[in-house]
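User: Sequence for HAD superfamily (Subfamily IG) hydrolase, 5'-Nucleotidase below. C-alpha cells please.
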Amino acid sequence: MSDEELTRLLTSPRERREVVQRSREIFVNRNLRMSSVDLLGFDMDYTLAIYHMRRLEQLSFDMTLAKLVSEYGYPPVVGGLLYDHHFVMRGLAVDRVNGNILKMDRFGHVGRAYHGLRPLKREVWRELYRNKRVRLRNPQFAWNDTLFSLPETCLYAGIIELMESLGHPVDYGKLYDDIREAIDTVHRDNSLKREVRKDLARYVFLDPELGPALHKLRSGGKKLFLLTNSAWDYTDALMKYLLDGQLAEYPSWRNYFDVVVTAAGKPGFFTDARPFLELDASTEEGRVVGEATSLERGKVYSGGNLARFEELTGYRGENILYVGDHIYGDILKSKKSSLWRTCMVVQEIEDEITYTATRQEDIGTLSQVEVLRERLDDEVNHHKTLLNILERRLEREQLTADERLGVDELRKQTKLELDRMRRALKEANEVADTLEVDVEEGFNPYWGLLFKEGNENSRFGYQVEQYACLYTSRVSNFLHHSPMQYYRSPRDKMAHEQAGALSARLSPMGGEGPAKGAGNE
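Assistant: C-alpha cells for HAD superfamily (Subfamily IG) hydrolase, 5'-Nucleotidase:
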C-alpha cells in the first residue's frame, strides 16, 4: 500500500473498457475462479435458447386448454379463457387443497395469496397461512419454478375463477393434476415443439452474441458441453437456428461443443444410473447405435448420469461449471449431487433491473422515508416511556409545589412532542406503504417484484442465492468478461455488521467455501 510505483500502475487508466449494462452483468453469490474451470456445460431451453416468453406461454396455454376440453372432459366454456401474462411469475406455489396461489418470502411465510384471480380474503389468508410456514415438501403444495410452468399457474387460477363464478364446485387437487398432466403431455409428445419448429423466428430470440461468447470461452482454453432434456431432433433444429453461420470458424453448431448429450432426463441425470447411448446423428430421429463406452467430440449421445459423465470426460467437481435455468432440474440437484459450480440464467433480471432504474427517484424517496420512520418509531417509544415516568412521579411522589409545577410542564411538553411525532410516524407509514405498493405493483400488479417479497427476498430469490454460484440473464453475457475472470461475491453481513461493526471490514469479498444451499433439504 506504500509502494508508489504500484499505486501509479493501479491508478493509471488502461485501455478503454466496454461499459456493460447492469441488466447484462453476471452476479456473484459465491466466489468463482474461471481459471479453475476446465469444462463448461449448458442446458438448452431457456439457457442457450432464450424464448420469446409471452409467445411461447400463449402457445402452451392454448394447446393445454384445448387438450383439457377435448380429452379431459372440461366444459367448452373453459376453452374461452384468456391468458394473462401479468398473473404469472416464477416462484409461486399452488395450494392443491385450498385452490390458492401463493408468493412466499425466504422463510416460507406467505406474503400474497390469490384464490382464482382475486386476492384471498384477509381473514381466510390469516386462518390458513398467517401462523404457518409453507413447506414445499408437503404434497399439499406444488412449486412452479420454471418458465415452462407459468401457463399452468394461469390456467389453474382462471378455471377456478370461471367455474366458481358459474356456481360449479371445483376439486382443486384434481384440477391441478389434470393441468399438470395435460401440459406435460403437450411437452412430452413434442406437439408443442413441433409448433415451435414451424416458426423458430417467432418463438426463439436470435442472439448475435451467443456464438462469439462461446468462442471466447473456447479460446480461453475451456471445453464446452451441451446437456439438455430435449430430444435430438428438436435440439438439432434449434441449435442450427441459434448458431449455424454465426462464426466462420464453426461451420456447424456441433463444432462449439466437445460433448453433446440430449434426452438427459434431468434431474434424474444427477442421481440415477442410466447409461449413455450413442445416437446416429445423421438421422433426424437419432436412432440408437448402442451403449457408449466413451464421450467423443463430433458424436451425439442421450441419457447418461453424472458419475459416468465425470468418469468418461476426466473432469469432476469444481472443475465443471454448469449453466441452466431450472432451480430444481439444473441447479439444486447438481449442487446436492456433486461439487459442480453453477450459473443460473434468469432472463427476467433484465426486465426487473430496467424497471427499477425507471423508478430510481421513488425508490430513493422510499429509502429515506424508511430511515425517517425508524427514527420516529424510536423517538415515539422513548417519549412514551418518559411520559409514563413523569406521570408516575406526579401520582406517587411527594413533590413540592414548584417541583410539581416543573414536572407537570415537562409532562405537557413531552406529550405535545409525542403527539407531533405520532402524527409524523402515521404520515411516514402511509407514504412508505403507498410508495412500496406503487413500486412493486408497477412491476407486476399481482405479485410485485420477482426477487423480493416485502422487505425479504422472495422464496425464488432465496433459492437463487442459495444454490447458484453465479446468475445472469443470458449466456452471451460471458462475452463481456475474461474466460479467466475471478468472480468475487460481496461478503455476507449479519445485522450487527450492517450497523458498522469492525468485523464487517475484515474482508469486503466473500469466500469460495461450499455453496450456501449445499446439502440442505
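The mean pLDDT is 90.
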